[in-house]
TrEMBL record:
Keyword Transcription in annotation: yes
Alphabetically ordered keywords of this record: DNA-binding, Metal-binding, Receptor, Transcription, Transcription regulation, Zinc, Zinc-finger
Natural source organism: Lepeophtheirus salmonis (Salmon louse)
UniProt protein name: NR LBD domain-containing protein
PANTHER family: NUCLEAR HORMONE RECEPTOR, NUCLEAR HORMONE RECEPTOR HR96
Record's compositionally biased regions (Basic and acidic residues): 1-13
Domain NR LBD, chain residue ranges per copy: 90-324
Cited Gene3D superfamilies: Retinoid X Receptor
Biological process terms in GO annotation: cell differentiation; negative regulation of transcription by RNA polymerase II; positive regulation of transcription by RNA polymerase II
GO molecular function: nuclear receptor activity; RNA polymerase II cis-regulatory region sequence-specific DNA binding; zinc ion binding
Length: 344
């Protein structure tokens, strides 16, 4: 990558100020424990002597999320009309939620234009994510719960979650044998381009180990789940409805939606393993741990945008990652993309 793409120290300092402010807000939110979290800790201590959920070591925050799903069920479980049947099959309301994600995700599967979507270096790969962001925005429009949120929260969730969503979606198209991504092209997506993952090595010029970190993450993700569209979509919904994002107004509403998708993920795994409860729980905890790995990887990913000269970047990327302190949160280019659920 040419050095002209790299920011001057003065430019990077300006961009760091706003990004660091948002990161501080996010860290402050995630570090605090709610009363429900405290109850979960107590329940964890009482039950630790009677059951072992997973053989591998899982950190405390993973356990808290698992117990929160177990002991603080969402409205889906509390509604007597939607009780789970004895065969572990999804009821109509659960299935409706999952089908909604499949329909909404159709935008993410649209084939690329081979003339404009053939990244050969890091900067072209970065600008290809402009299209990914636009598709993620379209996807969220197809989720009823997301559209019911106020515009401030929708924008905050998209800004905070886009990087993680892009990284998660990318592992589905990763070819470990060729160390590259498969990019569907053509009118029907029957043709493919390949993008060598080695382009991420150019981030080393910026002092970042993005290549090694991404490779470690994608290889740690069990292929059984990496290629499972239902799993990827449920994890995507969990990422979208993250109450820890900066500038959230209605945190509890978003938290409820996220817990709903945690619940659906747990239900899906119980159904997948057909009553083998210990295996289902182990897989659930492992996937939660992958989400936490993804969050750390996303931090490195965002640093790439910070280091690259924004003159070489698409305007939407500058705005969604808050790279220009002069652009307000609700500026026109991003608001136009999110304000109407019926626009294209």
């Amino acid at each position: 990558m040419e050095k002209s793409f790299i920011q001057s120290e003065e430019q990077k300092l300006e961009k760091r100020r706003k990004i660091q402010l948002n990161r501080d807000k996010s860290n402050a939110s995630s570090s605090s424990l709610t009363s429900a979290d405290q109850l979960n800790q107590s329940l964890s201590e009482e039950s630790s002597s009677t059951s072992t959920v997973c053989e591998s070591a899982i950190n405390d925050s993973c356990i808290q999320i698992a117990l929160q799903t177990e002991f603080h069920p969402t409205s889906l479980e509390n509604n007597p009309k939607t009780e789970t049947n004895s065969t572990n099959e999804f009821n109509s309301k659960e299935m409706s939620r999952i089908q909604e994600l499949f329909v909404a995700s159709m935008f993410l599967e649209e084939p690329l234009d081979p003339k404009t979507s053939n990244p050969s270096n890091l900067i072209s790969l970065i600008n290809l994510t402009d299209l990914a962001v636009k598709r993620i925005i379209k996807m969220t429009r197809g989720i009823v719960a997301f559209n019911s949120l106020c515009q401030e929260d929708r924008i905050a969730l998209l800004k905070g979650g886009c990087s993680e969503l892009m990284m998660l979606r990318s592992i589905k198209n990763f070819d470990a044998d060729k160390n590259s991504w498969r990019l569907p092209t053509g009118c029907d997506g029957s043709k493919e381009l390949t993008c060598d993952m080695k382009v991420l090595k150019e981030a080393s010029l910026l002092g970042l180990k993005l290549y090694k970190e991404y490779q470690k993450f994608v290889l740690s993700f069990n292929p059984k789940w990496r290629w499972n569209e239902t799993i990827i979509l449920l994890l995507s919904a969990i990422i979208i409805f993250s109450p820890q994002r900066a500038n959230i107004v209605h945190k509890n509403v978003i938290k409820l939606e996220q817990e709903t998708y945690y619940y659906l993920l747990k239900r899906y795994l119980e159904n997948f393993y057909k009553g083998r409860r210990c295996e289902a729980r182990s897989a659930f905890l492992s996937l939660i741990e992958r989400l936490q790995d993804l969050h750390r990887l996303s931090e490195t990913h965002l640093q790439v945008y910070l280091e690259v000269d924004q003159n070489y970047m698409e305007p939407l990327l500058i705005e969604i990652f808050d790279l220009n302190p002069k652009i307000k949160n609700n500026s026109k280019i991003f608001t136009d993309l999110t304000s109407s659920s019926n626009s294209n």
